[in-house]
Amino acid sequence: MTEPGQASTVRVGERAEGTVRRWCALWADSPLAHWWLRRAIGVYVVAVFAIRIHHEGDFAGYLRVGELVLQGQDPYRAAGALNTWPPFFSVLCVPLAILAMPSPYVARGVWFVLNFAALWWILSLIAKLVYGRRLTWRSPQGLLLTSPFVLLPALFSERYVSSNFDHVQINLILFALVLAGLKAQMEGNEARGGALVAFAAAIKLLPLTFLLYFLWRRRWRALLSSAAIFVGLSLSPALLWGWPRYWDYFAAWRERVSAGWGVGRLNQSVWAMWDRWLGHGMIPMLTPGAHDIPSSGSPWVPVAVGVTLATLVGCFWARSRKGGGDPAQQLCEWSFVFLATALFSPVTWKAYLAVVLLPNTLLFATWWQATRNAPSHRAALLGLAASVTTNLLSPGLLGRNLAARLEMACVPTILGLTLLAALVWVYPYLSFATFRAEGARAGRTPSLT
Fold first, then answer.
1. Which CA distances in Å does 234 have to 83, 90, 147, 204?
2. Cα–Cα 20 to 30 A to 216, which of 62, 77, 333, 357?
3. Segments forming the whole domain that contains residue 337
4. What is the mean pLDDT of residues 158-165?
5. Closest Cα partner for 352 from 338, 373, 365?
């Protein structure tokens, strides 16, 4: 029996949800709303260029490594602790260093253009995969970028997406490559799909987890092509350096990576979470934010991480036995692998979690079409609530001290694990046909010229 207070809370929640739905429907059909939103997006892009082009961020490391390769120096030992990237990426930094010769602003400007292009590519792929519609800027023949079906999930992911521009990183480009590769293998072009995933993995190792996914789903051509191309690209710097120098640099890279990144508040990995709690004995919310915290070396940390990962993967595997044939369920599988890879990496900077764009769109589409109080509806609400809450943890809203304590308490990590749990829960209920129908309805949205 529902208590009166609980019933009142439920009614308030239902009214709020109904208001959001009506607001989204009005927004989707309003030419004026789309007109203003296009201009707001334009202002955002210009502001990012104007402000962040003066910020060196991680890009300074890319340029430094490229310069060292051009000069024939050791790109690892000469760079100190700066270079944690595989040898293949060190070579890819050379064109960036050449672009920066007239001015680093030229290279950073090109880099921002590439990242915004990658973001558009990501959103286009997601719109096509989830709704079956082509993403457009103004044309009503496709799904408008300013539609709530695209823009709201992007706003739910904004903190992680913007972090890539704030710190001038490469993660959006890698996300676009892997997502394009997965789409290619879904469409039957498994060799091309595997090649795109392999290219991203040779730059940063995290996408290698998709080789395990290909193995699980018996995508043999994608698995073999991605493995072969990854090995080839990873060894290709030997053509420039020769084998003795290559293996020397490779050993230096492994040494740098084995040193780790510490478990300070900016590291939101599951490893860092358990190390703070079990290794260092930190009490959530009572420990102020701190950056330079070394790994404790506690043997209980890998055990806790392993149990956490095994629980999530085991639950997902059990749920996947109830489905797996629907393309929407494949998107859920990709979302799970993307997010789990980011969270269970030894280091998880906020920029790594830009991959939530895919699960957020998938869950938003599920929430929109699901019957109220159905299991899929509740699962989607849980995941979306976790993503919305993440955006509320900004220092600009809470103040630096409270935001730092929340990060030190691993609240973003817990919210990420909550999003993973929502994906596990919603998996059997996903239907691509329903999303396609919703995409067709969303595609009628007019555009103000």
1. 16, 11, 41, 11
2. 357
3. 260-440
4. 94
5. 338
